[in-house]
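User: Hey, my collaborator sent me this sequence without any context and asked if I could get a structure. I don't really work with proteins. Can you help?
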Amino acid sequence: MPDSIARKINHEKGLTVMNMVRIGRWAFVVMGSFCLGALPARGVTFFTEEFSDNSPEPNMVTGTPWKVISADFTGRVTFVSANGPRLYLGTKDTNYASTNFEFWSTVTIPETTDAGVQPFFGMGGLTPVASYGEPNTPHIYLRIWPGTYRRFYTSVSGTATERYIGKPLHGTHRICLRWEAATKQAIYEIDLNYTGTFSPDYVMYVDASAVPFDSSNSRVYVGGGDGVSFDDLVVAEPSERPLLFQEDFSDDSPLPNMGLGTAFGAALTDFHDDFSITSGPPARIYLGTRRFDYALTNFEFGATVIIPPTDSASSMPFMGFGGLDAAADAAYGSPSVPNLTLMAWPTPVYKYTLQTNNIQFASVNFAASCAGTNRFRMRWDAVARKATFELDLKYEGYFFPHYSYAYSVPESFVLDATNSRLFVGGGYGLTFDDLAVTGISPPFPLYFAEDFSDDSPAPNMGMGSPYGAATHTFDDRLTITSGGTQREFLGTARQDYFDRDFIFWATATIPETTSPNATPFLGMGNIDAISAWGEPGKPNMRLALRPDYKNYYLTTNDAHAVFGSLGPSAAGTHRLRMRWNAATKVATFQVDMNYAGVFASDFTCSVNGSGVGLTGSNARLFVGGGYGVAFDDILIEKPLSGTSILVR
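Assistant: No problem. I've predicted the 3D structure and written it out in structure-token form, which is a compact way to encode the shape of the chain:
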């Protein structure tokens, strides 16, 4: 068995449950989790088949051929015929409809205009054989029409639903059928041009609640016509996978992953290349996911939001997750409880608020109008029950948040497998585009995090050589305790950050002092060499906050590049952030002065680091200072990139 298939079998364990519910006119699939107390009942077998013995035994058997067609099992199953006839390979067990399962297969479709070359994949009775050698009713199956047809076709006992794809469908693809026995709901996922890592391009939902499956008519099978081949079949316990998708509304529809909630007032919508709310105030409406159990999985949810210049408070956009029960929607078209919601207020005060169950608990004012194109993002840690909302105002395609708020949801606030859909919405003039839901594990990909809770920075960081008699302590944070001109710094063991994208955070506390030696600094450079004052040597770049002059400065190789005022005082606790783009070699520094748990940048400065002299072997990250400066909550993140897509 290939290692990739073995890994997939080991990975794809768990259980997924789906139910059909309804928001307005939309039928939504609800996915949740429970514990399957035992393996499948009544003799159903979970197995893998990669035809290494040139045979389908012991679990599968070919069907009765229609006209002249045969199956070749040399390393895979390939159907061989003249134009027209088709054949199938099905399981010997006949009761799969009674249990939850996943059925996987890799299919290769030749490049052809032959209408008979149509692979199909599904569950049904298999006997007697219908026209063209396909399984008879009852059944559910997915058919791929290559050639000039270019579409997917799902059949539920003869009732067909087609989806035109509009591009060639020959090649090698990976298909998964997920079945939930209690509700008779199925999901098909298709990864076109499969390369070994399953990343589905399309999803199709199938409601088989009216199909009379029983213990005699629910085998799983693959089939097709001349030249179609299948390999690496897996029938396994269901896995608990994030249902991930990206939606740019290029097909002028939010299907299959999202649907509209109940409108407040005469809310009108338009899905022409984006989701626009075109009705006048005070009408509002939201767009929510079909999936219902996002509280149980780690995810990142992003949306681009275009806010018009407006004097209408009803135009405020919102995003978050919650129950979305149409019968219980709150006033003004807002989501029903429970919900956790970010709202941006374009008027009368430029601000964003965080709300639970529509009750505001946090508010931060923007520095200027939020009209224009913005990017909102929500990240969720299912284990810690922590949500982080971020906003990039004036988004230009490269996400760099200006505002961030982290909120740990208390256990008393119930978000579970039945009431945690994702949503975006608002009122007149708003436009949403490029929605993306990405599964992330862990939810904040890290190089590492350090809060000094063990009174040590090990194993990722270490102190540099002190200048003078500099001393330090690690008592839940790093404090540099020396006086006078003595400074010290803490640097990473890893030295190749120059070649890696990262976001480097640290909280710095400056005591009340006019001493220049209390200056905290954060940056990247060569910490093996020590310059004057006990700072990292060249090459380097760093941002420093100077308490005596009450200003900040950004330097490269100790040459000042940027100056700016810190305001009336530099004393206090501040949050520093450095973002490095390894492709462009641009470092962007931000500081939230008097940080209180909500990151809102007070100033931003950038520098091009391509000529500084940093390389993949001399670029460590560091923080440092002297005279009572303290650091805490150091975090080095891997910026999230890439999306697992169900709809392109």
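In plain terms: Confidence is low (pLDDT under 50) at residues 1-42, 640-648. You can pass these tokens on to your collaborator as they are.
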